[in-house]
Amino acid sequence: MSLVKLVDLPSFGDDRGGFVAIESSQSIPFEIKRLYYIFNTSGNKSRGFHAHINLKQIAVCVKGSCRFILDDGFHREEVILNSPTQGLMIESLTWREMHDFSEDCVLLVLANSHYDENDYIRNYDEFLGSVKNKTIEGHVINLLKCY
Ligand code: T46
């Protein structure tokens, strides 16, 4: 299964210009509790390098472009975001890195919970440990279901 899940956002552009309307829990699969945006970026300054324990997010490059790397501890995939009508779903327990920002990039991020520094895993080995624990937990639950 691909790590890169792109969500088509409801787009109502016409000859007056582009137009996208995003509704919480409707056009995106969670309730929006927070949004933030990244701008004034530069191509040689990468960002991210962390995972979240619980947070789910959708990232939309409303202007310009940037390259995302997503990593679930087993696979690593990358995608270039350059469309204001598509959002990249970023699931919990996914390592993310953002590279190659264009100078005009404006990256909007919609999040399903408020800001919590305790939800961040900023060390890659720690991230791999959390993935391993979750995988073992999943196997145990499946085994218990068999009995
Ligand atoms: C993510 C990627 C895509 C806040 O005070 N409130 C907030 O809601 C956020 C997101 C950040 N901050 C503070 C924490 C740092 O002092 O703003 C500063 C910049 O955050 P950070 O270095 O984590 O930014 P990025 O671009 O590396 O990562 C951000 C998000 O933090 C992260 O959740 O998934 O964008």
UniProtKB/TrEMBL annotation:
InterPro entries xrefs: QdtA_cupin_dom, RmlC-like_jellyroll, RmlC_Cupin_sf
CDD domains given in the database record: cupin_QdtA-like (cd20292)
Gene3D superfamilies given in the database record: Jelly Rolls (2.60.120.10)
Limits of the Sugar 3,4-ketoisomerase QdtA cupin domain: 4-131
Pfam name, any one: FdtA
Superkingdom, taxonomy of origin: Bacteria
Protein name: WxcM-like domain-containing protein
Source organism of this protein record: Acinetobacter terrestris
